[in-house]
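Hi,

I'm pasting everything inline rather than attaching a file, because the server keeps stripping attachments. The sequence lines come first, and each chain or strand is labelled.
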Amino acid sequence: MTSTSSAPGKVYLFGEHAVVYGEPAVPCAIERRATVEVTTRTDGRLRVDAGDLTLDGFTVEYGGDGAPDVDVPQSLVEAATGYVDGAVAQARDATDTPEVGFDVAIESAIPLGAGLGSSAAVVVAGIDAATRELGVELAPAELAERAYRVEHEVQSGEASRADTFCSAMGGAVRVEGDDCRQLDAPNLPFVIGYDGGAGDTGELVAGVRALREEYGFAADTVGAIGDLVRRGERALDEGNFDELGRLMDVNHGLLSALGVSARSLDSMVWAAREAGARGAKLTGAGGGGCIVALDESDASRTALSYTPGCVESFRAELDFEGVRREDG
Ligand code: PMV
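And the predicted assembly:
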């Protein structure tokens, strides 16, 4: 048998970085998905085909001895297999089948490591497909919890619940510490710009932490992001796009003040604003990767496609659906 599930990526409408210090954040699922196909195998081994997951693509097969037999850099293998191993471990635990092996095939339309929650989507879809393959259906909230454990472990304790909860549940969500809930939101017309790169999340988080410890006004900036998020939640509830855009602009400025923007991100943000977007900001850890703009028209997407440093721009509406079964 084969089971296939998909789960969406996400953008931060508001609140990245400040969420690390207990402030609320509002991530939103987007219509770009990772799809994971899982088939059980009888020999207990794990075979991961991540052909579409990296630029080069690779297939790796390994068993309990943990010695993958592949001809690609070890770091690349570890990056992809760490999350898949974690998802498989969670599926084995949830179904009480510690010995079972799997063939796993991953396809993802979410740029990697660029602030769009690609790893969370792979883990959520992977746990769902693997548990269903073994005849067990987990509720989205449990998938979110198990996927969070995987991210927490792979990212050495630095992960928040934002990506995994948002990917499992879909829509706009609110995360404040361990308190995660879904929000009522209108359809949000997002446009994404991608610079083809990725920031180092650990380094960027450490940079903000150091700044916050050194300067009272940096700590105040983190607090100001929290205040902004609370205003943003109200604007979301009212469907007030002008106010949402204005607050996205301010959020980007505050993130810049904390040192996590980049020239490429600033140029994409300005290109989107000048083309008439209601607002634009970086999304995720920063340092490189993606920006998100709020724009019902196609103007900012077109402007981004001509912006130096932007390698891809696309429209991605709010995805109200979280993890989803793709077979049968
Ligand atoms: O770049 P992403 O999508 O992994 O987001 C990082 C968000 C941070 O707030 C900077 C860190 C975190 O774990 O919340």
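The longest strand covers residues 26-41.

If the labels don't parse on your end, tell me and I'll reformat.
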